[in-house]
Each structure stands twice: as structure tokens, then as C-alpha cells.
Amino acid sequence: DGGITQSPKYLFRKEGQNVTLSCEQNLNHDAMYWYRQDPGQGLRLIYYSQIVNDFQKGDIAEGYSVSREKKESFPLTVTSAQKNPTAFYLCASSMIYGADYEQYFGPGTRLTVT
Amino acid sequence: AQKITQTQPGMFVQEKEAVTLDCTYDTSDQSYGLFWYKQPSSGEMIFLIYQGSYDEQNATEGRYSLNFQKARKSANLVISASQLGDSAMYFCAMREEEGATNKLIFGTGTLLAVQP
User: Fold this and answer.
1) Which residues are CB-contacts of B66 (< 8 A; sequence separation ≥ 6)?
2) Does A31 reach chain B within 8 Å, measured CB to CB?
3) How many Å apart are CA B28 and CA A112, to the nearest integer?
4) Engineering a disulfide at B3: which of B26, B71, B76, B108 sits with its beta carbon 3.0 to 4.6 angstroms away?
């Protein structure tokens, strides 16, 4: 079955530690995205990538980093510089050309930093 | 700047009745796309329906239809014959045209509760 996997579903970290969230897709999609969701708010774009070895900052990239070494994978690192890292993180992918294609989402990772 | 507004934080509907979830948008682009997603309590975002700005007919997908009024810049989601499983958060989103990146801008969502 094609889809997007994110692991783990729940993640707990101590303040000051970097943490990496995994995102893998087998849909052969060119583009991948990371969103953050806080209670009572919609999704906000952190980073996106349209092609391997290239990515762009979204609206709230500060304190985050990404890599795109393979088409299938787009891991997100939440660094200690992120002031409020506790949130729900969603990864998505889509076709890119034609731009009418919907984004497919993974199940999300709920990160708690104490 | 492009913006999506969902003014209904929460809605109640009786099972088997229809419900309309409001969405207004702001953009200066002539070409854009509008999406609706459903987010159950499990957290995953599920694509429901898409409307292109140049589509003359309102989009429909099963029990979902999009009431697209371009002049009013509204893209309301209509769910017919509500089911208990429709209880979830619903997000309206707009696709940015800049750079053809397929980036989406989301509204703050509407929490729908279907009552038996």
C-alpha cells in the first residue's frame, strides 16, 4: 500500500535536546512538506522540498532544519533553538507539476518537550 | 497576502441532516485552488474535495459538495446526510500560485459534532 509514514507517533524530549522526526513516502511524489499544528490553529508550513537535495523555508522555519537526500525521505530536526517545540507535526507529499494535486498527509508525530 | 478564514470554531448537526461549513479566502491571484480536509481525532489529514478557480461547476465528491462563490470569495463545504463518523475538525485550504510550489495555506478549522 502506498502512503506516508511518520515515526514515532508520540515523542518526548527534555528541553535543550535536538530531536529528529521521520517522514517516508512511497507514493513517488516529488514534493514533500512539514507542517506544525498547535491547538486551536490551522497548519503552518515549516519547510518544503520539491526535489532531492533542495528545500525551502516555510512560514515558521526558525529553530528547525531538514534534509532531502532521497526522494522518499524528508526528516525534520527540531533544534534546541526552537522556543516552543511542543506541537503536533505533520508531514505531507504531493505531485508538483500541474499543481492541482492534493497533498497526502502522514499520521503525524506529537512532540512533547519538558 | 493570501488568507483563509473559517469563522465557525464549532458546529453541531443532527445525524442525517445536512451541514454547511463556511470558508472565505483572500487572494489577488486569478488562478488558485481551494481544498477541504478532514482531521479526525487520530490526527491524520484526509483530503475531501478540490475546487479550481476556473472551474465553472461546483465540485462534488459523494456526500461532499463545495459551494463556490467566486465573487464573494467563499468556498463553503456542504456535507449531506451527516453521519456519526463525520465528527471531526474540518480545514479549508488554498493553494498558492507563487512559484507553482503547491504550498497550501490553511484556515483555523471548524470542529463538527454529529449528534445521534
Assistant:
1) B34, B36, B49, B51, B58, B59, B60, B75, B76, B77, B78
2) yes
3) 38
4) B26
What's residue B98's pLDDT?
62
- Which residue of chain B is at minimal alpha-carbon distance from A87? B43
- B19-28, B59-68, B98-107: the lowest-pLDDT one: B98-107
Residue A88 class from Cβ within 10 Å (0-12 exposed, 13-18 middle, 19+ buried)? middle
The answer to whether A114 faces chain B, any CB pair under 8 Å, is no
Q: How far apart are CA A24 and CA A78, in angstroms?
A: 17
Are the beta carbons of B108 and A100 separated by less than 8 Å? no
Q: Which residues of A touch B37 (CB under 8 A)?
A: 105
Shortest distance between the Cα of A17 and any Cα of chain B, in A, equals 25
CB contact under 8 A, B102 and A103: yes
B22-42 pLDDT, tens digit each:
999 999 888 889 999 999 999
Type and span of the H or E element at A37: strand A31-37
| pLDDT number for residue A39 | 86
Chain centre to alpha carbon of residue A106: 9
For CA atoms B48, A43, A12, A68, give the dihedral sign. positive
